[in-house]
Amino acid sequence: MMSKTLYLMRHGQTQFNQLHKIQGACDSPLTKKGIADAKKVGQLFQREGIEFDHAYSSTQERACDTLEQITKQPYQRLKGLKEWNFGVFEGESERLNPPVDKSVGSYGDFFVPYGGESADQVQRRVNQTLIEIMERPDNQQVLAVSHGGAIHMFVLKWVKEHKLHISNCSAMKFSYDNKAFNYEKTIEVND
To answer: 4-187: CATH homologous superfamily?
Structure first.
């Protein structure tokens, strides 16, 4: 069996991104820049001849709106691709985020006592969802639009060799075979 391809993309810039507010389970609309960047990614995919047999999005508006700027094809919304739930920190200043636990490369369990998810919960949820997507027999080249924190936890599981920055509208290309993801490259929008 040939390996499959996943393009895992972060949504475009939102008002909360611009204001440096924590947005996990809560939502914020795309900015004009977020919309323009998503359109640029769609044009880049078209120029490169990259077509998707299936597309998926988080159920959150900012991810759906990003996907709809990239392609007009039908897509499925999946809760498993949602952003990390930060509990009572939702909508607050990013300055309230705890320092990253360097031993695990994330916030660990910090948000759990505040009604949020642990890093492990996010990683399991996103990883399981993406494996289920890629295991579908007719899914060969897939686009999935998700969120910075959710993608970060997925990347921590599969990309050991170097740290990756996950900017708005960046798309990470992975090959997929035998329930394993292999990072290939990141496609960035040039300003």
So the answer is: Phosphoglycerate mutase-like (3.40.50.1240)
Is 83 a known active-site residue?
yes
Q: Could you list the residues known to form a binding site for substrate, using ranges.
A: 10-17, 62
Nearest to 106 by CA among 95, 117, 119: 119
pTM for the complete prediction? 0.96
For this structure, is 162 an active site residue? no
**Pair type for strands 54-58 and 76-78:** parallel
Q: Helix 148-158 vs helix 119-135: angle between axes, to the nearest 10 degrees?
A: 80
Radius of gyration of the chain (CA): 16
Taking the chain (191 residues) in runs of 10, the rounded mean pLDDT of each run is: 90 96 94 97 95 97 98 97 97 94 87 96 98 97 97 93 84 96 90 52
